[in-house]
Amino acid sequence: MKSNFEYNLCNWCLKRQYIKNYRLKKIVEDCEICHGIENQIYKISYKIIQATKDYQYDTFLIGLTLDHSFYDNEDKFRSRFKIRGKENIKASLLREIRKNFGKISNKKIDLNSPDITVNLQIGKKFETTVSVNSSTVILSGRYRKRKRFRSISNNSDNVDCLEINQRHIENLLKKKLMTLFHSKSIIFWPLGKEEPQSLVVGNGRPFYVTIKNSKLISFKHEFSIQSKGLIFNIKEKLPILPKATPFYIKKVRTLVTCEDNLKSSDLKLINDLGIRIIESYSRGYKSWNFIYQMQSELKTQKKFELLIVCDNRFPIRRFINGDENVSPNLYQILDKRCMCEFFDILDIASEDD
Length: 353
Prior knowledge:
Blueprint: H1 11-17, H2 41-51, E1 59-66, H3 68-81, H4 89-105, E2 108-109, E3 116-122, E4 128-134, E5 137-145, H5 158-181, E6 185-190, E7 200-212, E8 223-227, E9 230-238, E10 248-258, H6 264-271, E11 276-282, E12 285-298, E13 303-311, H7 316-320, E14 326-327, H8 330-334, E15 338-350
Parallel strand pairs: 1-2, 1-3
Antiparallel strand pairs: 3-4, 5-7, 5-9, 6-7, 8-9, 10-13, 10-15, 11-12, 11-14, 12-13
Helix pairs in contact: 2-4
């Protein structure tokens, strides 16, 4: 069995063992535990600098996978001297790499929510692999739609129109964000939908966006993107998505056409309706939404403008067109067949606005 002084250890490994009266040696490449890996810390840090140069970030976290031979070497030594409960080579090396990298990059370590996470794999002969993952960027904002998109074919139902419109808006935003954030993994969540012909003005429609594997993590949180009649205003960067959909109320302006001539007494039925709860059925699910206020103004004998203040997910066109799965609907209120020519979103407000 080797005596105490027969072990060829470097100063860095020896200090980690906390053995009293053990002669210290200079750092040597043939250290029986680390084989001189401490000399590689600067080289490893530089590799991380190279791997993260395309990322714009403020905070980082580094993880390490170390070849098992380093643990084996240290375990044999500690077994010889019955050393327990001390920091191992991985923890010591990782701390030094994090410290050195933070100093070189002038970035801060964050153990809980880092902008980027660096994963190191170091082999027996110091061969080093560096991989970088950025945290998911979550944005909240609102978009305004100042241009009416081309109408969808009459063969498409209302649900199809809403979906097509949403995909079109999503594709426009994604195209811009892909260039800005250098990411191809972007998901868009609007809070509600409108038709292609509809305008969205006022504060705009709220939405969330998640961006994975982004190169841009640290940035000015408020910015705007404009594309083909759409204005996307990014309000803030969020730590997580809301667990529940926030509550919003919308104000909508519609133009309604009736089969029969209208009288002022007909419109009085609408204006005096008060707050009503409307039940709707779609795709096997029932939902209930409130109408808080309706105001109508006669334009011609068969047309009137209708302003509706209602819950954000209220089915405007189905209500006006007298859909039998919406009750009560406008046909049941007026006893006249009506058709919604178009509707515009004038504003969408929350309790915080």
